[in-house]
Amino acid sequence: MDSSKPIYNTIGKNYNNTRSADPWIANKMLSLLQPQTNGLFLDVGCGTGNYLEVFLEKGFDFYGVEPSDVMLATALNRCKSIIKKAFVEQLPFDDSFFNGSTAMFTFHHWKDKQKGLSEIFRILKPGSRLVLLSFTPEQLFNYWHVHYFPEMIRRSAAIVPEKEEMKSWLRNVGFSVVSTENYFVHDELTDHFFYSNKRRPEKYLDPEVRNGISSFTAFSDPDEVKSGLIKLEQDIASGVIHDIMKKYENDIGDYIFYIAEKN
Fold first, then answer.
1. What does the pLDDT profile of the chain (263 residues) look like in tens digits?
2. Cα–Cα nearest to 124, from 100, 92, 94, 104
3. Angstrom distance (rounded) from CA 22 to CA 259
4. How many CB atoms lie within 10 A of CB 143?
5. What are the CA-CA distances from residue 256 to residues 74, 79, 139, 185, 252 (Å)?
6. I want to staple 118 with a disulfide (CB 3.0 to 4.6 A). Which of 43, 153, 173, 238 is the partner?
7. Contact in structure between 16 and 191 (CB atoms under 8 Å)
8. Are residues 209 and 197 in contact, defined by beta-carbon separation less than 8 angstroms?
9. pLDDT of residue 4
10. Measured CA angle at 51 (ends 46, 56), to 5 deg
11. Is the full-model pTM beyond 0.90?
12. What is the pLDDT of residue 8?
């Protein structure tokens, strides 16, 4: 993917139609970040400002960075904050500038992931945290979608490290304490990211929902998506989908929170 032309310039046009900030996730990110009201924080890859807006409304001082012109324009219009156009690999801030940072559903789009992590470490003050919400290849291969879109899952899994490798990357750039917490998708999510509708398979038949999911827009083959959707619709109608979904139940989590501390 050409980092000079972010995929979100394409899907960002109608992103807010299906990607509203989810209250539970917003509160969870803050509980892990442990922000103070007198601190300054950064939301990396803030997109249209959906979660940034919530953080600001809760009384915390957040900046944002976003490489997509389309999403940046929306974020600037909705959030009363400093939001800059930037890629994570070259953050336009001084060393030790922030008291903490968040990054949600953006890590897989970073061109140089280790450099991006190093940049976040650089701009954080000692005693700060980075809280990152992402996924692992192992988790992806346990989505029931692999039954219908195996190549899409393979491509999506190829762009993120396994959990232990990711923890090593975080330690290698300087974070002294690294922990993780698995996240299992909860019902009634308002943010329709990839596996948010794991118990509502009919949602994936809606093109607007798919258009807000980068796996469908950036890492898929049109022919596979077409045939997979036909099979999915048939399995929903027959009820077979429930057996397939049950087959992929697991205890490894659907997504993962990485919590890294800079001492």
1. 333 345 555 544 556 678 899 999 999 999 999 999 999 999 999 999 999 999 999 999 999 999 999 999 999 999 999 999 999 999 999 999 999 999 999 999 999 999 999 999 999 999 999 999 999 999 999 999 999 999 999 999 999 999 999 999 999 999 999 999 999 999 889 999 999 999 999 999 999 999 999 999 989 999 999 999 999 999 999 999 999 999 999 999 999 999 999 99
2. 100
3. 19
4. 22
5. 27, 27, 9, 11, 9
6. 173
7. no
8. yes
9. 39
10. 100
11. yes
12. 52
10 CB contacts (<8 Å, ≥6 apart)? Answer: 70, 217
Structural domains in the chain, CATH included, are 8-137+159-194+252-262 (3.40.50.150)
Rounded to 10 degrees, the C-alpha dihedral 236/189/50/94 comes to: -110
CA 212/CA 189 separation, integer angstroms: 14
